[in-house]
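Quick illustration for those who missed Monday's session on complexes.
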Amino acid sequence: MTMIENYLNKIHHGDCLELFKHIPDNSIDVTFADPPFNLKKNYTSYADSLEFQEYLNWCEKWISEMVRVTKPTGSIFLHNIPKWLTYYATYLNKFAYFKHWIAWDAPTAPMGKSLQPSHYGILFYTKKEKGAKIYELRHPHKRDRKHGYLLKDYGGKKDGLHPFGPLVSDVWTDIHRIKHNTKRDPHPCQLPIHLMDRILLMTTDEGDIVLDPFSGTGTTAISAKRLGRNYIGFELDENYIEISQEKLEKTKPNFKIGESWVSFYLNSIVTIRNNDWNNLSRYFKIPNPLRNIDFEKTTLIDKKLIPNEIEHPLLEVSKNLTKINGKKVIGNENKKFSHAYSQDKQANA
Ligand SMILES: C[S@@+](CC[C@H](N)C(=O)[O-])C[C@H]1O[C@@H](n2cnc3c(N)ncnc32)[C@H](O)[C@@H]1O
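Prediction with S-adenosylmethionine bound:
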């Protein structure tokens, strides 16, 4: 075992099961995993297939490691399509505590002639039954895009609405998957950073440690850094580590208004902590009378408070990038490859 400090604020190259061996028990505040789907075949009757079982056995190993390294006050998150999460949950129920199944509303590829899959799941477990660090969150009121009116009809109760927005529930419809290639790195399954911000604002404080064993292009690490948290990432592919490092160098711990850490996306605040509103409200112009919130937004008084988000590094980095997961990628090939890979990922599930 190594001193945890030596591992902080780096993306480590290697196999996560090997790297986990260096992380002491009970040393991490939040572990988050967005694993690869390694199956090669499209099984119709998969329950007794060896390859399927091997995949799950492998998942159980790193899930156990996640639980081992998480602090007694900490939380464990697993992102995947619902099918895999049912197995993860059955396993985790034996030695961690179920909090929520977060349904992240995002269309996935059609998978047959039954229901259209329209959400990814994020399993939220705590290591211990009691005493976990969890904060309530708020997101802005949802509005009709064309006219700006509140989508929900609150009738005569508008004067009682929260000026910022409602409490975040376990269904997340306000964060969209990164579809457009110019908005993401040459990585097929990159998560939106403000999705990670929400998870970290909910379960960590400034200075806490977040570990992601499948770091990809560093989404978790960047979110942690811009929110003043420490991170540890593991990643097999050196190209992804290179992309992450470029972005991390440009990332500053500046997603803050006054003393409160907040999540921004495209110049708007996406998530705040409920108990930060007392400090944050002075920075906002709140509709007066409040019932005008029906057509008038609560906005930041000074737009200069909005931090610069990092430039998208695709153009800079991909010039040097020749391979992803061992496949050659040049220029537009990125696009083709990403598309093929995501289709693959769904079909194989
Ligand atoms: C679904 S992606 C994660 C994407 C990430 N959440 C992001 O937003 O960029 C899974 C990642 O795990 C990496 N990976 C696969 N097997 C691994 C292993 N055994 N140890 C560490 N990383 C691994 C892959 O290279 C891939 O980048």
